[in-house]
Amino acid sequence: MKRNVVKKLLAVMMASAMAAGLAACGGSNASSDSAGGSDASSNSSAEAGSSADASSDSSAESSSGGGASGAEGLNIGATYYTLQTEFCMRMDDAAKVWAEENGVNYTSYDGNNDAAAQLEQVETMIADGVDAIILNPQDADACSACVDAAVEAGVPIVGVNTMVNNDQLTAYVGSEDVSAGEEIMQYMIDYMDSDAFNIVVIEGPMGQSAQLQRYEGITNVLADYPNIKILAQDTANWSRSEAMTLMETWITTYGDEIDAVVSENDEMALGAREAIEAAGMDLPCIGIDGITDAVSAVESGKMIASDFQNAEGQITGALETAVKCVNGEDYEKEVWIPFEMITPDNYQDYQNKY
Predict the structure, then answer these.
(1) Could you tell me if 158 and 172 are in contact, meaning their C-beta atoms sit under 8 angstroms apart?
(2) 143 by DSSP, 3-state: which?
(3) Bigger pLDDT: 216 vs 36
(4) Average pLDDT of the segment spanning 21-31
(5) Average of pLDDT values for 123-134?
(6) pLDDT band at residue 67 using 50, 70 and 90 as cut-offs
(7) CA-based nearest residue to 151, from 15, 348, 297, 300
(8) What is the largest CA-CA distance in the chain?
């Protein structure tokens, strides 16, 4: 049966399946370079992969296992809000490995932190005839248009890692960012062994779901500690260099009033630490993601901890969910991959994760 005939049949199946809690979906292969443009590079092949199994309480962990049934020959496209940070590159790399093992034609695009660029990429994938789209949105609201475009075209779209405010999203695979914010804030309080000190908070891109939810988690904990004061908060856009510059400004402004740094990701925590060391200071820093440099920083004592976010588990879960959609199989609407705190006691377990 030719692909276009299959797609028409699947479109009919999806309309009826949605009412019953099912759905049906569809794919290509590229990679975006730097600001302003995207290149395509292909990945395909066959056999085993990883699987994310959702439990009854809507939380799940990714586990390595047999390949995704019915994946071979599908075309799946992905747009990432950036491919310039280690975490997003980890997702893309894991997706390429999974696609090769499962015989999927996989295309990835770098959104360059631009919601409008991501919409153009979604439209390109639709025009190229992908079977399904993976969306890692830059902005929770602005990227809603990406979902609208896919739904209008009858292409399933699965969100991963960051959330989008659109209830027509086919499914979502990620980790609960509110809990990560709560975990790093509580860990810092326990480390400081005090209920009265001053912090600065370095945030991700404003309006992105991870920024909003991680900050929500931080303030949830601080609600019980009225004498812990946020001296300053600002975005460094997940960037190590921006965080270093921001921290330099705060050191100039607040100096010894700063007792600790709470960062919404590792890149920014590491940038802040560079500024702290350059100023001849020693302030505890904590972050999120568990990237390679952060694990080394926990080992050396430059960071007190990092909350590991499973890039491979999230992206393979999203891809496997997309395949289930394409094949009209049952799938979980939400799959949650737990965070894991990396500490001086267990950092060795995370040194060879990637």
Answers:
(1) yes
(2) coil
(3) 216
(4) 37
(5) 98
(6) low
(7) 15
(8) 71
